[in-house]
Design goal:
amino-acid biosynthesis, Rossmann fold, single chain, 33% helix, DHquinase_II, aromatic amino acid biosynthesis, alpha/beta, lyase, 3-dehydroquinate dehydratase activity
Length: 142
């Protein structure tokens, strides 16, 4: 059984109430419950923090023993050299995801410190971005 973790960064705990025109009306807990039901043969764990160091600590904790990490570092994607360095330092493959199409938003969101070290990047498919990342791990021999 594949063991995957979804790591979410700042403000993603507000999904369902935060800017629903961009992020939708579904809470992440509701989405995650549905995802777990659709993939009963995959262990899916979730971690969310608004704190950069906590995200780095979690990446280091799971980054040598899990089958995959789905990472939405949110705004830290565009600002955190530390999170990018943590992704580069671990062995577990990482797929960077974003709910919105970051390339259709402000210019600063076009830069990612994670992407150069990630297995891949999925942007702009709403919460389905997470499922697409999950499917990438199931389709690969990682």
């Amino acid at each position: 059984m594949k063991k995957l973790i979804i790591i979410n960064g700042p403000n993603l705990n507000l999904l369902g109430v935060r800017e629903p025109d961009i992020y939708g009306n579904l809470s992440f807990t509701e989405f995650l419950d549905n995802l777990k039901q659709r993939y009963p043969n995959v262990t899916i764990t979730h971690f969310q923090s608004n704190i950069e160091g906590a995200i780095i600590d979690k990446l280091q904790e799971v980054g040598f023993s899990w089958d995959g990490i789905i990472l939405n570092a949110a705004a830290y994607t565009h600002t955190s050299v530390g999170i990018g360095d943590a992704v580069a330092a671990i062995k577990t493959p990482v797929v960077e995801v974003h709910i919105s199409n970051t390339f259709s938003r402000e210019d600063f969101r076009h830069q990612s410190f994670i992407a150069p070290h990630a297995k891949g990047v999925i942007v702009g498919f709403g919460l389905q971005s997470y499922e697409l990342a999950l499917q990438s791990f199931l389709a690969s021999h990682v």
